[in-house]
């Protein structure tokens, strides 16, 4: 899945949200031999559970360092994750849902790129997926390819002929394949958090798009998911 030649001990910045996909990507980076620098963006999202999960995962994969960077996107709003908008519970539709956070992955990757350049890393990992996702435009392969080209133009390193590689190893995997990777990599799926709208008791709602995709993926893979769902 990854080119592992000459990477042992090489620094890589992993965008670690605390979700299932980012956990698996961090596990793949660890398996390949990268020295992981985990970046978690605390964007004042709807709940804190994902941030807590990211801290646990960073420790589990042996991250050299984790930065939890505050970025208050509630100041912008425009999403059910950053505004007073109800999270849809009726199932995954064809339109881009209100849980889309405007330009989130563009903003997050820009920050990841900045840290990578600052520490001399040239490898960046992100857990975007173009198959089992909710239609977000910043999860598409075209976006990842475009950002990699942009990184060469936007940085001193790129201008001096030292380009960055944006690794998106889950891009063409289904959620069942991603669920199966947790077993192969020896990662406890319950460390990660996917729910957009946890209950007051701290349970995953089981009905939002993210919960539905996760549950179906683990069911299709025949893998146990330790997440407790309210529905």
Separate helix tally: 7
Subunit arrangement of the protein: single chain
Q: Please identify the top-level CATH class.
A: Alpha Beta
Q: Shape, please?
A: globular
Average per-residue pLDDT, rounded, comes to 94
CATH homologous superfamily designation: HUPs
What share of residues is helical?
25-40%
How far apart, in Å, are the first and last alpha carbons?
34 Å
Strand/helix succession: EHEHEHEHHEHH
* Rg calc: 17 Å
The number of E-state strands comes to 5
Mind summarizing the main beta sheet? Answer: 5 strands, parallel
The proportion of residues in beta strands is: 5-15%
Into how many domains do the coordinates divide? 1
What class, by secondary structure content?
alpha/beta
Which regions contain 5 or more consecutive residues with pLDDT less than 50?
none
Q: Helix and strand layout, with pairings?
A:
Blueprint: E1 11-15, H1 20-32, E2 35-42, H2 49-60, E3 65-70, H3 104-119, E4 123-125, H4 141-154, H5 156-159, E5 165-167, H6 175-184, H7 209-221
Parallel strand pairs: 1-2, 1-4, 2-3, 4-5
Helix pairs in contact: 1-6, 6-7
What features would you describe in this structure?
With 231 residues, this protein is α/β, with parallel strands linked by helices. The chain has a single domain, classed as 3-Layer(aba) Sandwich (Rossmann fold). The chain contains seven helices and five strands; from the N terminus they run E-H-E-H-E-H-E-H-H-E-H-H. The chain has helices at 20-32, 49-60, 104-119, 141-154, 156-159, 175-184, 209-221; strands at 11-15, 35-42, 65-70, 123-125, 165-167. Strands 3-2-1-4-5 form a five-stranded parallel β-sheet, sandwiched between helices. Helix 2 links the parallel strand 2 and strand 3. Helix 6 packs across helix 7. The longest helix has 16 residues, at 104-119. It is globular. The chain starts with 10 loop residues before the first strand and ends in a 10-residue tail after the last helix. The model has no long low-confidence stretch (mean pLDDT 94).
């Amino acid at each position: 899945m990854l080119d592992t030649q000459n990477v042992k001990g090489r620094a890589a910045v992993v965008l670690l949200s605390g979700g299932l996909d980012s956990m698996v990507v961090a596990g793949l980076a660890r398996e390949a031999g990268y020295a992981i620098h985990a970046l978690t963006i605390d964007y004042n999202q709807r709940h804190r559970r994902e941030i807590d999960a990211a801290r646990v995962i960073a420790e589990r994969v042996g991250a050299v360092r984790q930065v939890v960077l505050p970025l208050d996107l509630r100041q912008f709003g425009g999403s059910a994750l950053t505004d007073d908008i109800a999270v849809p519970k009726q199932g995954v539709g064809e339109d881009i849902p209100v849980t889309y956070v405007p330009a989130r992955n563009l903003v997050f990757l820009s920050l990841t790129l900045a840290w990578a350049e600052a520490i001399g890393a040239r490898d960046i990992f992100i857990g975007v997926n173009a198959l089992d996702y909710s239609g977000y435009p910043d999860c598409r392969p075209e976006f990842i390819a475009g950002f990699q080209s942009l990184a060469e133009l936007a940085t001193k390193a790129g201008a001096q002929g030292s380009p960055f590689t944006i690794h998106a190893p889950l891009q063409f995997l289904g959620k069942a394949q991603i669920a199966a990777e947790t077993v192969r990599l020896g990662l406890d799926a319950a460390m990660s958090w996917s729910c957009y709208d946890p209950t007051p008791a701290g349970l995953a709602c089981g009905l939002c798009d993210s919960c539905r995709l996760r549950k179906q993926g683990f069911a299709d893979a025949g893998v146990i998911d330790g997440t407790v769902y309210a529905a």
